[in-house]
Amino acid sequence: MSEFKNIxxxxxxxxxxxxxxxxxxxxxxxxxxxxxxxxxxRAPTGKPRWLKAPLAAGAGFEAVRRTVREHRLATVCxxxxxxxxxxxxxxxxATIMVMGAVCTRACRFCxxxxxxxxxxxxADEPVNVADSVALMxxxxxxxxxxxxxxxxxxxxxxxxxxxxxxxxxxxATAVEALTPDFQGVPEHVALVVDSGxxxxxxxxxxxxxxxxxxxxxxxxxxxxxxxxxxxxxxxxQVLTKTSLMLGLGESDDEIAxxxxxxxxxxxxxxxxxxxxxxxxxxxxxxxxxxxxxxERYREWGxxxxxxxxxxxxLVRSSYRAAWLPAWRRAQARAxxxxxxxxxxSAAGAxxxxxxxxxxxxxxAVLHRNxxxxxxx
Length: 376
Prior knowledge:
By secondary structure, this protein is α/β, with parallel strands linked by helices. The protein is built from 13 helices and 14 strands. It is 40% helix and 15% strand. The strands form two sheets. Strands 5-6-9-10-11-12-13-14 form an eight-stranded mixed beta sheet. The chain has a six-stranded mixed beta sheet with strand order 1-2-3-4-8-7, with no helix packed on it. Strand 1 and strand 2 form a beta hairpin. Helix 5 runs parallel beside helix 6. The longest helix is centred in the last third of the chain and has 19 residues, at 343-361. The protein is globular and about 70 Å long. The N and C termini lie far apart (50 Å).
């Protein structure tokens, strides 16, 4: 076993919190947080019954998993241990992580490995990602990435190249980009916003008071708000989106203030979910938010003018991400048909729009009913 700055570097598959050597030749910490006091990190227990997720299985899930393995793709679904992986992959939606699986930042809630890739990038990734999206027959893809503060533009040009490659290969696939903050540089944000995507997302993660210690010192509440505001001003037709974790010690007043701050920047979509501690090396859960509280927060968001506010214990940034853009497209088709006097076409498109809107509106009901079954 070798050492790096007096920290043992393991050659075997690392355990959570251990430093290891990546195939690209740089070191990283497994799960993004160092082990403390020699304790082996493990997932915490004692979660309420409403946080149980269905088993990841099904034909669609298996098909997506095979493609991910064969093409050695990094998905945040797996890297971040998302509880909704089965539902999303079966529905033809996946979240692909570009620019590697090692982040230059070390947020205290996140289980993505952390390190310094020292400028490494896979030049073939845009083409490979586009081919994989086509093979998986994805109707909607969320592209996310680690932070890459080691790159001059934070990886913005590479990110934009991945979006363009997908659009060239499968033009009908809708693309959502869940991006880093690119250190708040507007020119770098614009590279991604102008790439042809439908949704631009950057997560605020938590309320202002808890931004530090929850997020890495290089991230910031105001910085994220500025990125989201610029994206909307720069290209108003692109939907903007963000996500807030609950259960870290925030108050109702702070949640409401965060919603107001986001609406002031023109943010279209907000998702709210329960923070779950990935290992004992990460921040502890301060409270488990009950399903009925999430329903109330969703009502708050809709009352403030968000196009959609998806809230529930197992909701994550990209949960049911495809519904809102699809609803918007159906609405647009209905309006075009009506303008041109095609009454039957307009009626059909409007019915589809209403159906998609109903799917969105019933998210809270689905969560509530499922959670009541678990609680029973």
